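Just scan my protein:

——
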Amino acid sequence: MRPSQFHGGNSPCSNYIYVEMSDNGEHGPRSTFAAYMAEGDQLFHKGKYVKAIESYSTALTLQPHDKNCLVARSKCYVKLGDSENALKDAEESLQDDEGFFKGLHQKAEALYTMGEFEFALVFYHRSHKLRPELQALRLGIQKAQEAITNSVGTFSSVQLENKGDLSFFHKAEDLKKIRPKHVIHPLKKELRPQDQKTQKSEKTAKQLLGELYSDKEYLEKLLKDEDLIKGKTRSGERLQHLILNCISYLDTRTEFWRQQKPIYARQRDQKLLLQQWSRSHQPSDPACYVLKNLEEIDAALSVGNAEGSLKKAQQVLKTVQGWSDDVLINRSEVLGNLYSCIGNALMDLGDMDKALDNHLKDLELARHGKSMDSKSRALDNIGRVYARIGKFQQAIEAWDEKVPLVHSGLEKSWLFHEIGRCYLELKQYQDAREYGTQSLHAANDISDEKWQLNANVLVAQAELKLGVYRTSVLHFEKALDLAKQLQDIVAQDAIQKVTQMLGLFVRQGS
């Protein structure tokens, strides 16, 4: 039986499915599809892919052919290097809905891991056409294109010519006739280029495998131990076969990573650039130096290293402040970006006053430089700081100024929702309902289920405060349906409790 924390209440909406003990004494699934999905998601995020597959497989026994579950299990197979099963699940998720973008994306990922880069590119494009706003799909197209170029080169490098020279073959036939029969040993010298090629290949494999190369060498040494390889594991598998399978897997990954040169090359180039910077206080290319450091600052913050991100941003800020506009053409824009990074790091560290100060500096530079994107970013962050410290009216003012600068449907949905939340905190419920409705319209336009869920909850809360109970129930019920589709267990439980209480109140009132 699964852990109790995944079990819900006894509400009619829980949709529990129980399977009794079979005749042979084995237990079947005793929880909900959503519970097993949630458990699988948790295991996946912890890197326990084999156990996650077990949870997803159990969920599929309750709801066979569920496309979201199939995609989730396919992702696990990709992580484990089982490309065939990954592709099988991805294709099954598309059986009833060929336009299911998650399935198309996952099929592209499975094909990519199989080395079928051309087919992967086709499905990356199909999924991108359906959801062009998703960064992951754009990256998929880019990496597939790079892998194709790296595997076969550019088109110009593989064009065939309608001329040739066959004299080599004629010379080879002549050599067979001229060479004395007793000349055999020199053939060893002719193999030397092949030996050099092998050595070069091993050197490349060492670079690609990194720390795993020593494991490969160790496995190869084990093969030479005749007594060892005759042994068997507890399951009866011969050690020789097990070792050979491991070596084969490493060889397969070596060939795959060899085709990922763009990623490997970028890592190498970053190291070289860092070495060059350490040799000189003044970077040879200021723009390249700034871009590299901004990436590192963002990366540190994204993994929760706010202190590291802050320290690096302050160092880079000091360097850029010492340059003139002639050294760095877009110096003002870079300074604003750095103030923004420092402000975000300070927010994560809880220093709201200093965070606000840096975001206001970013806004001042954006207004001076008339950069609308920078202004939108600064107003966004200023509003977040004010909301975090409970100054909801100031947050609304900042975000209201940002509204005309927003063009993305996703950002509109988020922004209207946050403004509506602030009005809800200020007990201005009509305004909260109005902005919640705008958020819902924006989410519907882009078919984003997550923000449809958030917006419906906001509208329902506002309607509840305004005393419009029936409408409030309708929005809560819509939110509950969306939470079930998203397998958001926490949201389901919270909404179910409110809906039950509110539904009972409405029935008693009528």
In short: The chain has 25 helices and no strands. The CA atoms of residues 293 and 316 lie 7 Å apart.
